[in-house]
Amino acid sequence: MPTTGRPKQQLTLYDSLSIIVGIVIGAGIYETTPLIAKSLAQPVWLIGIWIIGGIISLVGALCYAELTTTYPEEGGDYIFLTRAYGRKTGFMFAWAGFWLVKPANIGAIAFIFARYAQQILPLQLDGNEFIAYAAAAIMLLTILNINGVQTGKWIQNLLTLVKVLGLLMIIVIGLLFVVPVSETTGQGSTPQDTDIYLAMILVLFTYGGWSNISYVAAEVIEPQKNILRSLIISICLVTLIYVAINFVFLHVLGIHGMMNSQSIASDVVRLSFGEPGAMAISFLICITCLGNINGMIFTNARVYYAMGQDHQLYSWLGHWSRQLDSPVRSLTLQAIITLVLVILMGGSENAFERLVVLSAPLHWFFFLMVGIALFILRSKQTVTKGNYKVPFYPWLPIVFCFSTGFLLFASLSYAYSQRHPEAYVIIAVMLTGIAASLYDPPRRGNK
Questions:
Q1: What's the rounded Cα separation, in Å, for the pair 296 and 301?
Q2: Please, what is the Cα angle at 389 between 384 and 393, to 5 degrees?
Q3: CATH at residue 132
Q4: Could you give the CA distance from residue 289 to residue 152 in angstroms, rounded to a whole number?
Q5: Is residue 10 part of a domain?
Q6: Is 127 among the domain residues?
Q7: DSSP 3-state assignment of 74?
Q8: Sign of the alpha-carbon torsion through 51, 57, 58, 60
């Protein structure tokens, strides 16, 4: 009798939609919009870049749908990279994700949660309030996900429903109940230069997370149908919401009001409902953050579980609790690494931006590698007949690869121009990963 359990197919189409939408629609839409407005300063460009982001995401989703429906296994990118390039490349993806990319993404959203939670229920902890709230969210949601797939998915479904309804509420309020602010009253700074690189990094960060459905492919019921459907429906829905909410922000605040807003959704609702309305928006953003964090915790841990299935030195991560029906060890260690990163950031005001910059180069590098992997796996004829195939091949995968290549260049260029010290952390993590991969025998019983 096996000593560990295995993932079971128990995620429906609605569950899959909730995972994707819940991860993609995070507090990033509230946090990045003023920064994007500062980077572009033109209403047409502002709306246009959100449409472009949605198109790029949809193209990428169609490419991912082919890979995921062909290899409906736990781990997603890890599986694709391993099959296309070999064990060491898959290992490097999991290594970078484990130590840097995934914790940075979770931590970035946790800091946004902390800021708004502090507005609702202020703490006095000698400057450590943000750390306390961020850590509490990470630990609580990790414990709930350790309690099993059913618990994790129902939490995700509920939080996603609340956040989508909340965004629709803001759109309705902004269009029907708020008198727009005159642009001539806008105060504050104006941008000196257009920074398309930063704008694209932030837009695609805000759209990011749809690929995480590939991490839980083995748990999706009828993956060949439901993964494709969930990707297309969710990205179209998210794009419509993002474009609509930015139109509302422009309509109510104007471009200068957006640029100088410290809490853009609260500013919109405050104009009609005063401080009680602004407090309600703070609560909505907290719920939005929790849904985002929960989705990432739920899916990211499956990558480390998949790595543990293949690599002997990390086999203890490849344990699936039969009693709790979850990858307990992967979830626990993921939480520990994320908490360490959050504490090291110290709750600084720019912690969100620093964490985005920290994770972006490696994120886009491996995204590009996955795009190229589609061509490699097609050439190996590992895509079987009857599976979904991306339309307009090879042109859509080429567009996806060029897009991710541009974003890799943009993230590196921006990090270099700002002289972010986090660049040294990226180098150190990758070098230690290369060293670790040299002393990593295959797991016994695996090919």
A1: 8
A2: 120
A3: 1.20.1740.10
A4: 15
A5: no
A6: yes
A7: strand
A8: positive
